[in-house]
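Appendix B. Chain record.
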Amino acid sequence: MKPPRIDRREYGAQAFSLLELLAAIGIISILTVTLFAVGGNVRKQAKSVQCLGNMRTLYSAISAYKQDGGSWLSLNRNDPNNASSYGTQLWFITLIRLGYVDWVLMNKGGRTCMYAKALICPSNQEDPGAPYPYSSDVNPPWRTNYAMSYYWGDSFGQPSAIPGQYGRIPALGATNLSAILLIDSLTATGGIYPDKQADWNTSSCKIPRMLHGSGCHALLADGSVVNVSPQTYPDLPNRTNWDPVQQ
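Structure tokens predicted for this chain:
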């Protein structure tokens, strides 16, 4: 007995040819790649927006510190227990200890640390921060990956002639409000020496070129956030970009 014949007129409209299947697979592959690319861009943009928000939060914190203590926060001439007093502590530790930024205890890097989300740029995977190694705290602060320059006051004496008591800039002493207050960085210290670490043409440059697509973010003394790249700041080490009292 012969097997029944398939009437192609009946089933042909429902069957897919090999070429049709390959075309469908190709379209699905293209859509998958496109969706992954779009999703990646969305995540990058979200991290960039979070960094912008961090810098605005930090400006509010520094403004509150300035109002309370009568001077700008310095790189490392701060008293972590009193905004009005001179000390030798770094700026980000001072903000954490005096409660100007919100923080939580979090297990990171093998330690339970005081972690302040506003101090961490999520895009900076090259330097995501670490437990601050020179802290005597049982729970050390998690180090920031933003940096402040020594022009805001440096206990190591550079530059040697910063006006203001003990190198701290008085609340009304900043005359160059376009000076960079904080910037995305790779310094691993929370501080930056622009003459040595901000030259795009040297291997010692600690300013990321492509952190947020076309550059990195910097918070200025007037509270604005700008994009910093070789195109927007070709002369980045120039003192006028950093010194808050440069005329």
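Further analysis of this model is presented in Appendix C.
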